[in-house]
Amino acid sequence: MKSDVFGKIKDFLLSRGFSTFEYPRGCFDIAARREDMLLLKVLTNVDSFQKKQAEDLKVLSQFLDSSCFVLGRRTRRDKLRDSVIYERFGVPAMTPETFTSVIRGEYPERFRTRGGTFRRLNTDELRRKRRKNKMTQTELAEQLGISQKRVSEYESGKERATLDMVEALEEIFGDCVSRDIDPFDIEIRAEEMKRAGSQISRRLMEIGFNTRSVARAPPRLLARDGKTILTRIVKKDEKADLGHLAEFSRLSETEVFVITDGDRKVETVPAIGRERLEEVGSSGELMKIIEERRSS
């Protein structure tokens, strides 16, 4: 079933003008770009999506300014419903049909978490209708049976509203006060790095980069100082999958290099030896070296 969904999603993306890159053994299965970039994990059961996969996916998403989604048919207990956004470890999840609708510009109405099912309030419209009806936040809160603070949070967008609450608000005002959910507006937050990272990561930080490591992607290290660069360490006898790394770099419009034992050349992508990296004095100098070696 996963292979069928995978093929249909890829064909759909190509039909909509996206360029794609497949990496089915990673934290994502398909990377796609038209104007902006998407990272998609395709599963049958979205509960099989692991926390470590999610963290890698969120780190990639942040560094690459991309959106990331999990696509699937069901959880362990239930089928996923169309036109609903779910959530797995902070990553939006949805059915393939919901995803294709989103790409066409048709957004879902509901967001479901373990805390319940919610709708997104149109905060400006809610505030406008309350004032048009000459109601204070306290008066509206009394009608809803909630606190004035909760009404304030609804109007500021700090608090999501349950389906029952949205229905109660729309009954009071006789009009719609909710809006569809744009999955591209959902903020993706990776956890803060709790340790210093590898020696290479620390070296890149010393010369001005913000860095994060990932384990299930073509790069193993991401570094950012303005433009993101992708890198990984290539040991002497290791046959690294540099073709995937180079292809992912082209699709994501990032710079790329690999780090070697000894200042030796490798195929496909620029290479820098560990010793040479220790001599680099700034992020700008490193970017210049990458450019020179890519051109040679």
Number of helices: 11
SS-based structural class? alpha/beta
SSE order: HEEEHEEEHEEHHHEHEHEEEHEEHH
Strand content: 15-25%
Mean pLDDT: 91
Structure explained in plain terms:
It contains 11 helices and 15 strands. The two termini are 46 Å apart. The chain has helices at residues 2-15, 51-64, 96-103, 123-132, 137-144, 148-156, 163-173, 199-206, 242-252, 274-279, 283-295, and strands at residues 19-22, 30-33, 37-42, 67-71, 84-88, 91-94, 110-113, 116-121, 161-162, 178-179, 210-213, 221-225, 227-234, 255-260, 271-273. The chain is an alpha/beta fold. The protein folds into 3 domains: 2-116, Trna Endonuclease, Chain: A, domain 1 (3-Layer(aba) Sandwich); 121-178, 434 Repressor (Amino-terminal Domain); 199-295, 3-Layer(aba) Sandwich (Trna Endonuclease, Chain: A, domain 1). Strands 1, 2, 3, 4, 5, 6, 7, 8, 9 and 10 form a 10-stranded mixed beta sheet that branches.
Write a brief caption for the model.
This protein is α/β, with parallel strands linked by helices and 296 residues long.
Furnish the topology, listing elements before pairings.
Elements (H helix, E strand, L loop, with lengths): L1 H14 L3 E4 L7 E4 L3 E6 L8 H14 L2 E5 L12 E5 L2 E4 L1 H8 L6 E4 L2 E6 L1 H10 L4 H8 L3 H9 L4 E2 H11 L4 E2 L19 H8 L3 E4 L7 E5 L1 E8 L7 H11 L2 E6 L10 E3 H6 L3 H13 L1
Parallel strand pairs: 3-4, 4-6, 5-7, 13-14, 14-15
Antiparallel strand pairs: 1-2, 2-3, 5-6, 7-8, 8-9, 8-10, 11-12, 12-13
For this entry, give a set of tags.
single chain, 296 residues, alpha/beta, Trna Endonuclease, Chain: A, domain 1, 434 Repressor (Amino-terminal Domain), 3 domains, 10-stranded mixed beta sheet, 5-stranded mixed beta sheet, 23% strand, elongated
